């Protein structure tokens, strides 16, 4: 695990800085957290979880890993890694709701700096930390008190993930940038039609995200990225398993789509750059 000095990671019990100590991290008050063999630490306290194994289950995590590895969402990865505020060397970047770590991990391989990923899914963090060794990975609940110091992050990523705007505002430096990623217009429209699945008007998602941030953040600009991707059967299956489509479509519709040998879909995302008020 990589931690800078002073450490921006805070003890979830007492909020004191967590420092590396042999095979664990601990605060000055003696609250220890073991570093797993994959390289991550679990900072999720028992009262911060609603289920025994919260977050994405192993099947969803591995579906997401395979899908990102296939390159089907490369337009999103490239857009995030090319953002100028993210690409400055020596920045501190938090990815809240990082999943299996593809976006933050790619950034950590491309730039210097401190890269921290948190997710409530233990399996997701295990998978992320096993591959991406230039970042620090933690199991934590991003919708509660995030175990990161006030005014310590240059950038926060919240890509296709729930947002904790109050905590983001606290954690960001005064000149920091919050990057929000939401589905863009016509995202996966071909797959949604096949499944007779409606998720509302994706065209409005960016506006809604900006409005919800408005009390604490103002929008600097937004970037729309899109493209067409030809998916094979395995990619179609993984895409369905890793998205809300899995839970909101009928079993019959999913079974029929998973038998398709190929399907060309629109991938579309909007990135919003938000600054603190």
Give me the secondary-structure topology.
Elements: E1 19-21, E2 24-26, E3 32-34, E4 41-42, H1 58-69, H2 74-81, H3 84-87, E5 91-96, H4 102-110, E6 113-119, H5 122-131, E7 136-139, E8 153-159, H6 165-171, E9 172-183, H7 189-195, H8 205-213, E10 217-232, H9 233-241, H10 245-248, H11 251-257, E11 262-276
Parallel strand pairs: 4-7, 5-6, 5-8, 6-7, 8-9
Antiparallel strand pairs: 1-2, 2-3, 9-11, 10-11
Beta-strand level of the residues, as a percent range? 25-35%
Number of discrete helical segments: 11
Helix fraction by DSSP (H/I, runs of at least 4): 25-40%
Tell me the radius of gyration: 19 Å
The number of strands is 11
CATH superfamily: Vaccinia Virus protein VP39
Sheet with most strands: 8 strands, mixed
**CATH fold name, please?**
Rossmann fold
Oligomer designation: single chain
N- to C-terminal separation? Answer: 33 Å
For the record, the count of structural domains works out to: 1
Order of helices and strands: EEEEHHHEHEHEEHEHHEHHHE
Question: Which shape, going by the Cα principal axes?
Answer: globular
GO molecular function: methyltransferase activity
Domain Methyltransferase: 93-176
Protein name: Methyltransferase domain-containing protein
Keywords: Methyltransferase, Transferase
């Amino acid at each position: 695990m990589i931690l800078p000095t002073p450490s921006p990671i805070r003890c979830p019990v007492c909020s004191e800085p967590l420092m590396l100590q042999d095979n664990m991290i601990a605060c000055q008050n003696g609250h220890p957290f073991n570093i797993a063999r994959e390289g991550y630490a679990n900072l999720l306290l028992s009262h911060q979880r609603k289920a025994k194994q919260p977050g994405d289950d192993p099947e969803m995590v591995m579906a997401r890993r395979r899908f990102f590895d296939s390159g089907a969402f490369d337009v999103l990865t490239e857009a995030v890694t090319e953002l100028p505020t993210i690409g400055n060397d020596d920045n501190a970047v938090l990815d809240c709701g990082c999943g299996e770590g593809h976006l933050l991990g790619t950034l950590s391989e491309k730039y210097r700096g401190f890269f921290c990923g948190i997710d409530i899914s233990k399996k997701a963090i295990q998978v992320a930390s096993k591959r991406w060794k230039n970042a620090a990975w933690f199991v934590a609940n991003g919708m509660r008190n995030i175990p990161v110091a006030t005014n310590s992050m240059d950038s926060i990523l919240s890509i296709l993930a729930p947002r904790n705007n109050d905590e983001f505002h606290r954690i960001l430096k005064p000149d920091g940038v919050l990057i929000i990623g939401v589905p863009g217009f016509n995202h996966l429209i071909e797959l949604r039609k096949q499944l007779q699945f409606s998720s509302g008007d994706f065209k409005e998602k960016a506006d809604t995200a900006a409005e919800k941030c408005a009390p604490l953040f103002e929008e600097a600009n937004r970037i729309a990225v899109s493209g067409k991707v030809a998916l094979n059967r395995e990619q179609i299956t993984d895409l369905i398993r890793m998205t809300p489509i899995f839970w909101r479509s009928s079993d019959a519709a999913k079974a029929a789509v998973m038998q398709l040998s190929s399907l060309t879909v629109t991938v579309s995302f909007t990135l919003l750059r938000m600054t603190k008020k």
